[in-house]
Amino acid sequence: MTESRCNKCGALAGPLEWRCGSCGGSLDLVNLPAFDASSIKTGDFSLWRYRAMLPLECRFSLGEGMTPLVPAELDGARFHAKLEYLNPTGSFKDRGTATVLNHLAAYGVGDAIDNSSGNAGASLAAYAGIAGMSATVFVPAATAVESKKKLIRSFGGAIIESHDYLADVYAAAEETTYASHAWSPYFVLGQQTAAWETWEQLGRRAPDAVATPVGHGGLFLGFYRGFKTLHDAGLIDRLPRMIAVQSAGVDPIARGWETGSETPPAIKPAPSVADGILVDMPVRGQQILRALYDTDGFALRVSNADIEAAQQQMQRRGFMIEATSAVTAAALERIRQRIGEDAELVIALTGNGLKSLAPSSASA
Ligand SMILES: [Zn+2]
Fold it and tell me: Is pTM, for the whole model, over 0.85?
C-alpha cells in the first residue's frame, strides 16, 4: 500500500500530513505501483490514462495532461517543446493539483489552502471548484501579478495578500488542510505523468536531456522520477540528463550545483521577471541536486534581459509562454554547448503568457 514517509528521518506520516511530524522534513510516497505499460488506458487522453500507476481514485478531472510535444527550432538549435501551458488553467501545476485534490477528496477534505505567486493558486481554485471544496490562496503582497490574482478569483478562489505569506500559510495550516504544491508528495506524483507522456510521444523512448525552469522543482522532480519509474520497469536503458534553469536573481540550485553541494545555499533573492520561480529555499532542494548529480545533469542561470528576449522570440515563434517559462529557451545555446548538437532535448514550457497579456484591474 502506498504511504507517505519522511525523506529525512524515515518516519511514516498520516495521509493528510504535509510534512514530517517528527523532524519537519518533506514527505515522499513509498510503495507506489510499478509502471506497467500494458495497463495504460490508451483511450483516455488525459493523465488518467496512467491511473493504474496512480494510487488514487479519479473523482474529478478537467482533462489535465496529454499536452502536445512539438518539434521546434530557435536560432538553429533544435528541441521538442512539451506544451505544459496548455493545461486547463494554463500551467503545468494542473497535473499535481489534480492528484493532490483527488487524494484529499478521498479523505473528505472540504477546505484547502496554498501559497502561490499565481499559477498554483489558480490551479487550486479551479480544481477545488469541481471538487466542491473551498480554496484560499496566500499570495505575496509585494510581487503577485494582478492578472493572476484575477484568475484565482475567477475560478472562485479567495485571496489573502500577505507580506510574510509563508509564515502566514504555515500558521493557517495548523487549522486547515494545506494543499501545498511545494510540500505535497501527491503533487510531484502528478508531475511524473509528464515524463510518461513524453516517453509515449517519442515512440516509447527517453530523450537525451530534459530542461525545466526550477523554483520548488515540482515539474523537474516529476520528470526525473517519472523517467526513473520507466527505468525501473526496464522500459528505458538510461535516464535523461536533467537540466535545471533558474533566474539569475534567485538561483539556489545553480549555486549548489556549481559547488557540488548536497544542500542549496541560503541566498538573498534579487528582483526577477520570472515571477513563477522566485523560490529562495526550495522545499526539495536536496532532492533536486541529487537528481542533477544522478543523471550527469547541470544547472544554469539566465539574466532578466535574456529571459525577456527569449520570451519575445518564443512568442513570435508561436509559443505563447509567460516570462518564467522562457528561462529554458534563454539557456538553449548554453544547453546545446553542453549536450551537443545531436542530443535529443525536451524543454518544458510551463505557464501560459495569455495570463500576463490580460488587461489588469485593481480588483475583481
Ligand atoms: Zn522526519
Answer: yes
